[in-house]
Design a protein that fits this description.
five-stranded antiparallel β-sheet, 13 helices, 22% strand, globular
């Protein structure tokens, strides 16, 4: 799995099971590569008006398509990337082909998400190069939260609290290293205040006003510090799952689509990526490794409560975590409230 993710990020081909060789459109470095067919997400096929064809009218499954001429990397990229639609509006005509490797195609879409690239592939390209081979079932084994272990821990005084400890978690073949920040003294008499926070470089580090991630992180740490001053304690689970699990570059593509008028959920869908791909079982495993059996969860999202409970976490209380909007994130927060069910 790690080899396959690395291959996609470097632009090398992969072969999943008995499916044809797949070459990632976004990152491929073979200038002479061309193919008669592209594998794209169902959402992208919908935008390209392919889902009204029988071969593409099968729910949310990926679509195998061809054009009037073979695709090379230059012609395939504007087909794959919806953020380029305004710059390259004329496409087609295209035709959907029957797909004989549906399970492997689904795995390819998920593999692209994990690699943080566009979910689009040249199919059986010429020249293909030597592909990295894997099986569709390798994805499930790789993502098993039981693989996660504590790598190390250390004292880490932070601005919000000097009595903090950081705990790092690692799984084999996964380059993402999640961390937990434990604030205050552990106590079996008090249920810890817990915030599950997904990494957001633009919000947490750069102070982006397009989202509420940075203020939520700061307010969460401040609330945990206040708890510790009153004999309680708190835990921040900082998850390496940028953009709800779609990766930094794709999140920025979603921002570009938002600038064109789409809301945050529509932007993800147009990219062919899930509206929600956060890894709640891994968060549950982190709590298990920390020997935390019950939590008070800081969130405005009832779906997050449900997802963690489904992963085995006992939630004693949902603690609201509302913060004021600004002119740049007001629509984003409205979308979270009206379309995702956040209690804002």
């Amino acid at each position: 799995m790690a080899q396959a993710i690395d291959a996609l990020r470097h632009g090398w081909p992969v072969r999943i099971g008995g499916a044809p060789v797949l070459l990632p459109v976004e990152t491929a470095i073979s200038p002479g590569a061309h193919a008669a067919q592209l594998l794209i997400s169902n959402a992208r096929a919908e935008t390209l008006k392919l889902t009204n064809q029988r071969e593409a009218a099968h729910g949310h499954a990926p679509v195998l398509m061809r054009g009037a001429a073979p695709f090379d990397l230059r012609s395939a990229l504007p087909v794959a990337d919806p953020s380029l639609d305004l710059a390259a509006p004329l496409k087609g005509p295209f035709r959907a082909d029957p797909i004989g490797f549906a399970g492997e195609a689904e795995a390819a879409m998920e593999l692209a998400r994990l690699a943080g690239i566009l979910p689009a592939f040249l199919v059986d390209p010429d020249p293909p190069g030597e592909p990295v081979a894997l099986e569709a079932g390798d994805l499930a084994a790789w993502s098993d939260p039981a693989n996660l272990v504590v790598a190390t821990r250390a004292a880490l005084p932070v601005a919000a609290a000097i009595d903090a400890e950081i705990v790092a978690f690692r799984a084999p073949d996964d380059l993402r290293e999640h961390v937990a920040l434990v604030i205050g003294q552990r106590s079996t008499q008090r249920v810890p205040l817990v915030r599950l926070h997904s990494e957001c470089l633009t919000g947490d580090v750069l102070g982006s006003l397009k989202c509420d991630c940075g203020p939520q992180l700061d307010a969460g740490l401040a609330a945990m510090a206040e708890e510790s001053g009153d004999g309680g304690w708190g835990v921040l689970l900082y998850m390496r799952q940028e953009g709800r699990g779609i990766g930094l570059v794709n999140k920025l593509r979603a921002y570009r689509l938002q600038d064109q008028g789409f809301d945050t959920l529509e932007a993800n869908r147009r990219l062919g990526l899930p509206e929600e791909a956060r890894d709640f079982p891994t968060a549950a495993r982190m709590l298990e490794l920390l020997r935390i059996e019950r939590i008070r969860l800081m969130t405005n999202n009832p779906a997050k409560v449900t997802a963690l409970q489904a992963a085995g976490v006992v939630i004693a209380e949902r603690v609201p975590h509302r913060l004021p909007a600004n002119p740049h994130n007001a629509r984003y927060l409205d979308t979270k409230r009206d379309r995702s069910g956040h209690l804002l």
